[in-house]
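User: Sequence in, structure out. Go.
Assistant: Echoing your sequence, followed by the structure tokens.
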Amino acid sequence: MKDRLLGIFDKFYGGIKDRGSAKNDGDIKVYFAPGRVNLIGEHTDYNGGHVFPCALTIGTYAAVRLREDDRIRLYSDNFPDEGIGEIKAGSFKKLENPDWCNYPIGVMWTLKKHGYDVNRGMDIAFYGDIPDGAGLSSSASIEVLTAYMMNDLFGFGIELKDIAVLCQYSENKFNDSNCGIMDQFASAMGKKDNAIFLDTSTLAFEYAPVKLEGKELLIINTNKKHKIATSGYNDRRRESESALADLERDIDISSLGDLSIEEFEKYKYCIKDPVNKKRAKHAVYENQRTIQAVKALKENDIRKFGELMVESHISLRDDYEVSCREADIIVEEALKLDGVWGIRMTGGGFGGCLVGIVDSDKVENIKSSIGKIYKEKTGVDATFYDVSIGGGPALL
């Protein structure tokens, strides 16, 4: 991948001897930051609950070379028709085109706002092998990649945990998506063969080894793209906050994640709007499911873990209403098949991907069966990814 990216860099910016050779890349550096998949704990991160994501071996790459002037040029080989975006160092304003540039620009803006001055120009070439709009956190990946890259190039000395927080700030404030911390935290703090059990209210976390003897993770892309900032994601956050505000009038809590299931059932009458009540129910129950799921994984109880994954999907479909017909078809058909232990939508919803735990010796039959029925019912081909759990950002 490094050689490929250097070839892309040379094509658009020039200056590499023996084009594409990593041995002759001069002052060009190449970085990587992973995407993520969330095993369970969806829409709990901004509700003060627990999440359980892991970093993937797919993600976003960048080759960068500092300039002597203040021109910052950005190109992505994922959007080749959109050309090169350009801004001036220190003047971090949104671009209308190419609009994907607003993710790295937003990070630079955030760094400056927090006292870390990106004060030199640079040429950057990006390439990601995360499918766009799949819900595997391509936005967090490019954000963490940019922050990690700037941190290294300018010697800011920012800890990885703080990089995650800054990148969430960037997406919230610059790109107007009210996401929680999970995606950026998983990308920044990923550890090979481990998922991250994160309490989003305190950022306390622990790594949990994912041992799936004879089983593996399977990601299924509905190929219905979602875009969080323009979907119902922000609506769900507002509805959850309204439910919390109703509850706070009668009980002393600071987030929905503070509630046990028993406490929620006792006080849910405080929530006046029936839709908001459903949103709160999901947040509370999903938080408890996540705690139970991590316990099951530690006890090597994959059957229980899988059952909780399915319960999570049902709640996301019925109470939080962020699933879609395409995802529901895949879950329904997958649960009819031998070798599927659990499956659920993953990510913000309204399209994107599902994650399942399946028997390794049955994975090809599972993919074939789901693919056939999904095509018949939707007219669209599903895409399947056999993925591995990878580490965090790195200089290659």
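User: And one key feature?
Assistant: The CA atoms of residues 293 and 305 lie 5 Å apart.
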